[in-house]
């Protein structure tokens, strides 16, 4: 933790040295002592401390200095650190000026020089002032600060990215948090520069892209080797499991994700049915454990980096990324998972990120405290989202087309929802319109039986409906089912094209696609179970087939 600062200034080097020594003797364990003889240097340094999130607890300033008086200096310092205690060091002849300054700059105290012995004339005064300062002091947040508008899709994207990559950050809403405007002013930026990220060392990035921010935060966007045994595309549970097994079994393995590790599971507030965790665990916790485990086995993790194409050339597979770079691997596991379907409705599109969110209950829930929100979807993810939102929102309404949740949600979640007084399930209900100015304010709901419509107040709408695999980018001859899920193993025999593309003596392995050496695992695979445990199981299983494939080539 950064120590608060005691800042001393005196143009006389001997006095400065004496005060510095006395301050260090008594306070150096709890405070950082900074001493300078130059007023200009002092004034220039204060905004830099502020940018880095440091706090000044006490200013001790000489009154008679050539560049400006101590009172003038304290007036300037007060603009930047208004809560710091202000003390003048005065000669006996200056006590009148000091007394006047008590009113002018709300001086807290003046100390007459010399102050010997400090135990009697210095420390008791400063102890008192510092105790007083400490009682109001709340240590500033020391990580990244993200400044933006709450209802902005760019801010939402950055929040999701930081949370997904497990970077602690403080969200500062420019419309509700005075610190946000203060930080912007300090860096000479305006609201047009939002969203902005203030880094720990005090630098600011305005309107950064995910790739720019990722690079600045030390994420690895480029591969270090030219050839890998195994490349895993997608770092959800399936990809992470494949990485742990690939790495631990000696394969030179690279894991690539376009956003962050964890995939859908990473956005889950509580996974309650994963083996071995009787009290459940959060998606963030599972992700943290899994990525640490994979990296411990030497797996290289590349993010944020989107794969846009694969081209097999002989035994090598060339993987192209969105930034133009390339990785070559001998085998691939595709574990790109699924994304939520968009709710096709033009009136809602314009509120995406401004009240309408796809999944993402954990990153935005706090913004809806005390307000009514709606959840669309009847699956487990919608149920979990509703439970999470119910902690902060005034009321949560789950809209489903079916009469109730019994056919689509696990019973344990239905029971939890039944026991939560501020959640209501609205069966046979569709959202037909979203209304609002800058952000979502109301929804029009329609009862599917009676076709009766009603307008309701809604600060947020969280959509968890049907899923679509991330496979549009795969242009090579990989057989997919009618919905775009990747066909594997024996199922491939059912597709008319199979015989034209598969030219090997053996059958495809269980999780192998119709391109030998390219495997699919997890939700992206046709017939997957859509569970964390099954994705993890498939990721692990895929690696055993990778070994067989590599052994025969
Ligand atoms: C909110 C929520 C709660 C859930 N709760 C539970 C639960 O309690 N229990 C349970 O068993 N299941 C739960 N599930 C389902 C479970 O999370 C999924 O079944 C599981 O995450 C699937 O894992 P996956 O690895 O196959 O894919 P995903 O988790 O979807 O991960 C795919 C990854 O691939 C990346 N990617 C996609 N395209 C590319 C590309 N072109 N280049 C690079 N990277 C790419 C994505 O960024 C993503 O990180 C929940 C899902 C959600 C959304």
TrEMBL record:
Keywords: Flavoprotein, Oxidoreductase, Phosphoprotein. This is Response regulator. It holds the Pfam family Response_reg. Gene3D superfamilies: 3.40.50.2300, FAD/NAD(P)-binding domain, Glutaredoxin. One of its GO terms (biological process) is phosphorelay signal transduction system. GO terms for molecular function: oxidoreductase activity. The modification 4-aspartylphosphate is found at residue 62. Coiled coil: none annotated. Residues 5-128 form the Response regulatory domain.
